[in-house]
Design brief:
- It is a single chain.
- The protein is of the alpha/beta class.
- The protein has three domains: 77 residues, no CATH class; 289 residues, TIM Barrel; 58 residues.
- It is built from 20 helices and eleven strands.
- Helix 3 packs parallel to helix 5 and helix 18 packs parallel to helix 20.
- Bound molecules: iron/sulfur cluster (SF4) (2 copies).
Length: 482
């Protein structure tokens, strides 16, 4: 039976509830009156405390996703843009993945690192190699990483992951500094989550892949990941282990997207109901080509328009949750979805183990790659492209370093006040990037952007401090934050 507060996977991600939701959505997909009411409920409202959004239940959001009336879809896009603007402004946070090891004992049929793939070379970074990778990433200008590793208790035990995190945080090369390490590793125990928390991680990210239990079990035929309940309940254990910020995601293309969408929102509702905090981020990857993987065998793949609509509906349903897309998506797709709600993107990414150090911008090792990177531009090119499109690329990592995590973060976010930190922090970290890493033409565009954008800092005290800090950054000082 469906129970949002239950700690059992099959009760908070309840199959019957999802089927009823899909039926309800199908029946109401042309119910204009109801759709109007849902859009009205989700619209940002000005209150005495700031701007607030009500969000939507999984049933309401599923009606929007099912609706195929073009004019209503346009209204959804407008609303998604309005919410994005109200809570995230025009900043886009930058990050890069760092692959530590592709040893894996699981058999996920959509991933080239699956145990039975004998074609792919197996590699695990030594601490010296981690150091080299981090220096290469710092030299590009990155400040925020997401570390990735296969599941293998012998080759990649938690001690290895912890050692890598320690190494990453310890490296200060020139003005480089990795200030936030997000972690994307297999579901684990409360005790191990506590160790990750103590190591100072940012967000713990774990993709559900699919919420459909039967498909899940087929797609993960063997290995510890086969256990649907253990995987689905991982975020509860992570939160019990003290990790406030967790990142959800499904791999679109594995099962029916409407099913995944409802499951994803039910998972978000569950975290909010049980822990008082919803997910910090939601990632929206799609299945891609890789060694031993042909995306065409997954017959639930979604086109770019459906993908954009999913993103808009997530933005409307969970306005306070950051949304991430990776270099799995190409430039034009990324451009389309940025305005609809995406708040974080990766840039200059390598999805292989040891893919950064020793390679030039154009060289890309493919031997241990997890997926084909569609957006192959350098970080500098992505930064300039964002600025040309009116966005502020942000290298901000301030919140968790200031203790603004979990409900402390959400309470600021929910009244639109976090922007008072995000906006000046974006400008100051962009200034650092321009000083230390940008090409001259990128620097010129960035300087002009900062000069314009600083005028949009509304609080006079914050503006005064930000201006002073920008000057100090030009004079060689680093790492200011609100
Ligand atoms: S998705 Fe993760 S757990 Fe599955 S095979 Fe790939 S690396 Fe291993
Ligand atoms: S201030 Fe916080 S929410 Fe805003 S960009 Fe920085 S880390 Fe993210």
């Amino acid at each position: 039976m469906y129970n949002v507060k239950s700690l059992k996977a099959e009760e908070f991600i309840n199959h019957e509830e999802i089927l009823e939701t899909l039926e309800y959505a199908e029946q109401n997909k042309h119910n204009r009156e109801l759709i109007e009411q849902i859009l009205e409920k989700a619209a940002p409202k000005k209150t005495g405390r700031g701007v607030e959004c009500a969000g939507l239940t999984h049933r309401e959001a599923s009606v929007l996703l099912a609706c195929d009336i073009p004019e209503m879809t346009e209204r959804m896009y407008e609303l998604a843009r309005e919410i994005k603007q109200a809570f995230y402004g025009n900043r886009i946070v930058m990050f890069a993945p760092l692959y530590l090891s592709n040893y894996c004992v699981n058999q996920c049929v959509y991933c080239p690192y699956h145990y039975q793939n004998k074609e792919i070379p197996r590699k695990k970074l030594t601490q010296e190699e981690v150091r080299q990778e981090v220096i290469a990433l710092q030299d590009m200008g990155h400040k925020r990483l997401a570390i990735e590793s296969g599941e293998d208790p012998v080759n990649n035990p938690i001690e290895y992951i912890l050692e890598c995190i320690k190494t990453i945080y310890s490296i200060k090369h020139k003005n480089g500094d990795i200030r936030r390490v997000n972690v994307n590793i297999a579901a684990t125990t409360v005790e191990n989550y506590r160790k990750l928390k103590d190591a100072g991680i940012g967000t713990y990210i774990l993709f559900q892949e699919t919420y459909h239990k039967e498909s899940y079990e087929k797609l993960h035929p063997a290995g510890p990941k086969h256990n649907y309940a253990y995987h689905t309940e991982a975020m509860d254990r992570a939160m019990d282990g003290g990790i406030d910020d967790v990142g959800l995601g499904v791999l679109f293309g594995l099962d029916m997207y409407k099913y995944e969408f409802a499951g994803l929102l039910m998972h978000a509702e569950h975290l909010e109901a049980v822990h008082g905090v919803g997910p910090h981020t939601i990632s929206v990857p799609r299945v891609k080509k890789a060694s031993d993987i042909d995306p065409n065998v997954f017959d639930n793949s979604i086109d770019d328009d459906t993908f954009a609509k999913i993103i808009a509906c997530i933005r409307i349903a969970v306005p306070y949750t950051g949304m991430i897309i990776s270099t799995r998506e190409n430039e034009s797709c990324r451009e389309k979805v940025l305005g609809l709600g995406v708040s974080q993107i990766s840039g200059g990414s390598r999805t292989s183990v040891g893919g950064y150090a020793g390679y030039s911008e154009d060289e890309r090792p493919h031997d241990t790659e997890q997926f084909d990177v569609s957006d192959q531009r350098s970080l500098d090119e992505v930064v300039k492209w964002l600025m040309d499109g009116g966005y502020i690329p942000s290298f901000c990592t301030a919140c968790y370093r200031e203790g603004r995590t979990g409900d402390r973060f959400m309470s600021l976010c929910k009244i639109g006040q976090i922007q008072n930190c995000c906006h000046p922090n974006a400008l100051m970290t962009l200034q650092e990037y321009l000083e230390d890493y940008a090409r001259p033409e990128t620097k010129a565009v960035g300087e002009a952007l900062i000069e314009r954008e600083i005028e949009n800092v509304t609080n006079p005290k914050v503006k005064e401090i930000a201006l002073k800090n920008l000057e100090a950054i030009k004079n060689g000082q680093r790492d200011f934050r609100f």
